[in-house]
Amino acid sequence: MKFIRCTCENLSTPVKTVAGIVERNQSLPVVSNILIEQKGANVRFTTTDLDIQIQTHAPVGVEGTEMSCTVSAQKLGEIINSFKGQEPIELEIDDENRITLSSKSGQFNMQTLPVRDFPVIAGNDWLVDFQIEAKTLRYLLSMTSFAMANKDIRYFLNGVLMIVESGTVKCVATDTHRLAYCDAPVDGIPELEKPIKVTIPRKTVRELLRILPEDETPVEVRLSSSQCAFEFGAVEFLSKLVDGQFPDYAKVMPTLEINSQPVNVNREDLITALRRVQILTNEKFHGVRWLLSKNQLLIQGSNSEQEEANQVININWTWNDLDIGFNVVYLLDVLTALKNTEVTFHFAATPKSVLLTMPDSMNFQYVIMPMRI
């Protein structure tokens, strides 16, 4: 029975949308599959890794038929990618539940696994439900996610803290060596007795950044004590939350009273200088030394082979000389994420945590701890 008939491109789009969370070598084999549910023209595609579930649908089905099956996400995706975009393809299933993908040039026969074994995650009672533009959500996540921890035993650091208040959404991420904070106004959030705080897992954040559109598409966001859901276009995204208390980030945010020595630096010039010096820095510690003196920033790097590099940038520094060290990777991460012509560094009079912001704005804040060079 034929159940899908379309161009390769029309099938590739929903398959790529859901296949990103599928991992190889799953202990539960059916989790490596895509659940395909077809009823007439509408076909629903679902994947899960038991923590995240993505669903989407597309009008690629054959009218007058109805079926469901699961098939390897990896194999189906690779087969589709081997065809040209507008090439017509058909999928049919036989009495032994084997799927055949046919094109003008040949066929592919694939095994399926029982639909009854496919685990489907159900949503629960939501604490808040609001809409946010896709580009705003992308911005909040992209401006903080680079500071997430990766496989830290303090599992609550392996994600992004989202704080929802009436009129505002904030995102925070930290690996304890650096911290990124970003907020944005959002209309339509209902009145809340207190802010809702949830920690979105690292993999969920990465996957959202992969599939969220970069436009004003409305995203329906739902949050509970254990789950988050995002619905946009034809996509329904459901994920478990990180269970644990995210650190009180406000306690480590430097104040402008303490970090009272701001200086603007051209972002592109700084990126160029840092990348040059990085070539000869220690590959394990990535340390660079900043020497700030009157109207000048000297950046130095060295390695265990006694090789050295230095770069000079002209800046409007009017305070006492300052000698401070940083992890060059942490600096490049934030400078690459920003798009401003200039960035503002707020220094204390002695080597302490440094605050980086956009000029004349505190909507984005980045805190970086100094390191001993």
Automatic annotation (TrEMBL):
Molecular function GO terms recorded: DNA-directed DNA polymerase activity
Domain DNA polymerase III beta sliding clamp central stretches: 131-248
Keywords linked to the UniProt accession: Cytoplasm, DNA replication, DNA-binding, DNA-directed DNA polymerase, Nucleotidyltransferase, Transferase
DNA polymerase III beta sliding clamp N-terminal domain location: 4-121
UniProt keyword DNA-binding, yes or no: yes
Domain DNA polymerase III beta sliding clamp C-terminal: 261-372
Subcellular location: Cytoplasm
Keyword Nucleotidyltransferase: yes
SMART domains: POL3Bc
NCBIfam families named in the record: dnan
Family membership noted in the UniProt record: Belongs to the beta sliding clamp family.
Function: Confers DNA tethering and processivity to DNA polymerases and other proteins. Acts as a clamp, forming a ring around DNA (a reaction catalyzed by the clamp-loading complex) which diffuses in an ATP-independent manner freely and bidirectionally along dsDNA. Initially characterized for its ability to contact the catalytic subunit of DNA polymerase III (Pol III), a complex, multichain enzyme responsible for most of the replicative synthesis in bacteria; Pol III exhibits 3'-5' exonuclease proofreading activity.
Binding partners and assembly: Forms a ring-shaped head-to-tail homodimer around DNA.
Name by which UniProt lists this protein: Beta sliding clamp
